[in-house]
Structure prediction request, 328 residues.
Amino acid sequence: MGIRSGTGQATQSVESDRVGLTCVRVEITAAGNLGIASTPTTPAPSGPDAAVPRLAAGPAGFSAAAPVPAVPLLVAIHGWLLSGRLWEPLRHELEPLLPCWCPDLPGFGDRPRPKGLQPSLASYGRWLADEIRSQAGGRPVVLLGHSLGGSVALHAAPHLGSQLRGLVQVAAGGGVYQPRPFARLRQGGSAFLALRPTWLAHLPALAPWRSPLLAEPRAARGLLACSTNRGAVGQLPRLTASLGVPNLWIAGSRDGVMEARYVRHLAGYSRQHRLELLEGADHLPMRQMPRRLAGVIQNWLLEEKILAGSDLLETTLQGSDPTLGEAI
Prediction:
């Protein structure tokens, strides 16, 4: 599957001019060519990937009335300028074994930003924790963050207490402040927000790519500015070190935005971390290779006993021929 790192705090140095590692650069570039949410037309995976069972797709969202209360709810948090629909291919692979809730963050997708909610990582983390308690009730939760969404997940984690059972980070890393690259990033993001052709979002053919075009300017600028200031960047290692639950960090071998070494750097602050490298994956593996990504997540949940093997068997049988369950 790839490499797994040991535990302990990472000590490797991070090159200054290549820290355009931030969790948001790809969203600016991809949003500019409107390719951010398209499903790649790559061939079906083969080899080890083919061994991951394809499960029937579940409902579009999660309901508190979902069966098997012991099974955790996977809460997936998208990155900058994106929306919850980013996760649709991965959710198709995970449900019904693992129910998923993929909300739009306030100011993105179809969710307006509530009055009074400041566009900062800390405020969005508290908002997410409150929404999770409302959606999941007392059900256990696993957070799944992508890019900037990984930073939001780290800020939400302390507010969830014992309800949080695990954390999965995809293409999320960093934790090193670099003034010049971050200044260029803020300038590029502001330029895109000012020049984006918002009228294209109303064309039916472009519905899958509308989120970068309609993101609320204040929310987008605020989160970009917050995530690249010295205080917020320096807080990420402390939040990672304070995690009291197992955490999985997934990097793509071809991710030019968040290279594996930057993911490893931040993951190393947690004593309970594991690092997985997806060969051939770019910054959006949930759309490029959702089945492989689902397999990595499922296997880790089973190994950490966050998800029981009996849950996998029961859910598989529920989606199979009823006579098979009777025979067993």
